[in-house]
Amino acid sequence: MLCIGLLVQGLAGCSNTLEQSPAAGEIFPLSTLDQLTIISEGEIDLKGKTLLINFWATWCAPCRSEMPDLQKLSDSLDAERFAVIGVSVDEDSNLVREFLLRYEIKFLNFQDEKFRLASEQLGIRTYPETFIVSPRGVITRRISEAISWDQNIIEQSLEAGDKASAITRLSRLNG
Fold first, then answer.
1. Which residues pair with 83 in a beta bridge?
2. Which of 110, 105, 168, 104 is nearest to 134 (CA)?
3. Are the C-beta atoms of residues 129 and 87 closer than 8 Å to each other?
4. pTM score, two decimals?
5. Which helix (H) or strand (E) covers residue 129, if one does?
């Protein structure tokens, strides 16, 4: 009985760690995007930009409903300072391409069909999951639900992220 209790307690701790890591104030593993397949055409330089990285799937109703808002946001942002990026966890790249064409989604999209980035490195368990990442690669906000996207959310997240980043640096220096 004790062994089962310890096992359950240990597993619960692992799942909590995965779901919360990385969090705001931590570094997003941007180099892993290079290991994913690019689904949409075109390339953009991500250096020095604030990134909104949305993990989604065609089988996820909330994901599908927020994609038009993400495209409108992408269209409205200054392309020199911001980029919206999608990462589909679908296994079928043709299905993803068809969805992007049908709904005229033009921002850069990758495919993480084996969930290596989404599940293994980021601990994503539900979709959509969105990360707002500062030009320095620091996560300023992690959002685990579909929302209505607008420019104010990005600006508020950056302000909150700068404060969280400063607090994290101070606690590391003092701790």
1. 51
2. 168
3. no
4. 0.78
5. strand 129-133
Q: For residue 36, which of 84, 88, 104 has the smallest C-alpha distance? A: 88
Contact yes or no for 160/45 (Cβ under 8 A): no
**Residue 97's Cα: distance from chain center in Å?**
19
A 10 A CB-CB count for 106 gives 15
Regions of the chain with pLDDT less than 50? 1-19, 165-175
Tell me how many degrees the CA angle 16-22-28 measures, rounded to the nearest 5: 160
Quote the pLDDT of residue 115.
Answer: 84
CA distance 123 to 17: 8
Neighbours of 60 (CB within 10 A): 18
